[in-house]
Amino acid sequence: MIPDEAWNVLHRLRSRGYDVYLVGGCVRDLIMKKTPKDFDIITTADLRQVKDTFSGSAVIVGRRFPICHVHENNSIVEVSSFNTYARGSTSNQIYTSKSPHCSKNDYIRWKNCQGRDFTINGLMFNPYAEKIYDYFGGIEDIKKAKVRTVIPAGTSFQEDCARILRAIRIAARLGFNFPKETAYYVRTLACSVARLDKGRILMEVNYMLAYGSAEASLRLLWRFGLLEHLLPFQAAYFSSTRFKRKDKGTNMLLVLFSKLDSFLAPNRPCHNSLWISILALHEALVRQPRDPLVVATFALALYLGGDMSLALDIGKSINRQHNAGFSELLEPQVWDDKHLVAEVQSLAVSMRRALTEMTDEYFVANAMAKIPQAPSSDLVFIPLQAYLKVLKLIECVQHGKKEHGYEPKSDGNIDYHDLSYGTPAEHWLPPIDGLCIRFHFLQICNQVMPIKVPQKPLS
C-alpha cells in the first residue's frame, strides 16, 4: 500500500546510509488498512542532506519546524529530520518515562514521538525491517478507537490549539471517540482556536469538509462547541432548530454533506468552493424556504452553465417526491415558466447574499450574537479567491444567460483531478467554470430534491 513515490524517497535516502521511517498518520492508516492521505518520512539526514540527495526536485519549507518537500511524479513527499526536531523542541518537560535500557536510537525515536499530537499518530514504521515503533500505546488506542493526546490533554492543547481541530478531524474520519480528559479539554479550550492564523483554520476546516468526513465533522464541531467559532451561521441553524449537541438525528445540512462525503475520500478531495457553495445554498434556504422545483431548477441551471430554458425543460419532467421532512423546502406548487424563472433567479440572489454575509465580519458577528452563550467574534477565514469562484458560479443563474463556450459534463464519471482543483482539465473550457463543481453540486442537491441528473450528452 506504500506508493512508488514514497518508496523512491525511502530508497534514495537509505542508499546514502541514512535511517528512514514512515511516521505519523500514514502508519496509523496502514495498520487500519485504510488509504493514507499522504506519506510522511523522517530520517537521520538533516534537511540540507535531504535536499542534496534530490537535487532540483526538493525544497525546504517552514520556519519553526522546517521540512523538505520532495517532488516525485507529480506528488509531494514530506521529509522531516530528527535533527530539526531536536533543535526545534522548546519543552524539556518529560511526561512519560522511557525504558532505562533503551539504546541511543530508541531514545531519539522516543523523544520524537513524544512531540507528536496523539498516540495514534506517534507511531514509526521501518518498512525494511517491517517493524513498528510504538512508545505511547498508539496501537492499543487504535484497537480501542480512541483519540488520546501523547502528553496531558490540557497541556497539549494549550501548547498548540490547532490540535483541537486535528482531534475533531481525526475522530470524524476514523469514527473514533475521545477519552474523558481529552473530551473535557476539547470542549473547555474550544474558544482558543479563534486565535489561530486564518490560513491554518481554513486548512483544518477544509480537511474536515473536503475529504469525505464532513457530516461527522459537523456533528463533532457542534457537539464540542467549536462550530459557533468557525461557522456561526451554521451553528445558529443548529441552535434555532433545537438540534441537541449529542443529537443522533439529522437535518438538511447534514444530509447535503453526507451526500458530498459519498463522492470523496482522503486521497480524493474536492475543491473548497464546493463545500462553500453548499453552505451558501443551505443558508439561503434557511432564510427563505423554497419550492423543491425552484431549488431543482436552480441546481440544473447552475450545472448547465446558465441555460435556463433547458433547465426548465428538465425540471418540469421531474415526477419524484422531494424529502418532505425539511423546513427549508415548501410544499410543491404549479409554476408557469415566467414565475419559475423569477423564483430561480431570486434564489440565486439569496444565495449570493448568504455567501457575502458569510464572508463579512459584521454579519458574522451578528450571527454569533444569535447563539446562546456564544462569545463575541467576527472571524472570517473563507478566502477571497474561493468567494469569487462561488460567486462566478452563481452569477450565471442570476443573469439567466448561458456562459459562452461552456459544455456540461456528459456522463456520471468523477474526474477527481478536476474536482480537487475546481476547474476542468480541458484547456478549451473557461478556466473558472468549475465543471466538476457544478456537476457534483447538482448530485448533492439530488439527495434532498427530486432532480433528474443528466447522464448522457445534452443537446
UniProtKB/TrEMBL annotation:
Protein name: Poly A polymerase head domain-containing protein
GO molecular function term, any single one: nucleotide binding
Family affiliation: Belongs to the tRNA nucleotidyltransferase/poly(A) polymerase family.
Native organism: Oryza punctata (Red rice)
Keyword Nucleotide-binding recorded: yes
InterPro entries per UniProt: NT_sf, PolA_pol_head_dom, PolyA_RNA-bd, tRNA_ntf/polyA_polymerase_I
Record lineage: Eukaryota, Viridiplantae, Streptophyta, Embryophyta, Tracheophyta
Domain of life: Eukaryota
UniProt keyword annotation of Nucleotide-binding present: yes
Domain called tRNA nucleotidyltransferase/poly(A) polymerase RNA and SrmB- binding: residue spans: 175-236
Domain Poly A polymerase head: 20-148
Single GO BP term: tRNA 3'-terminal CCA addition
CDD domains reported for this sequence: NT_ClassII-CCAase
Keyword line: Nucleotide-binding, RNA-binding, Transferase
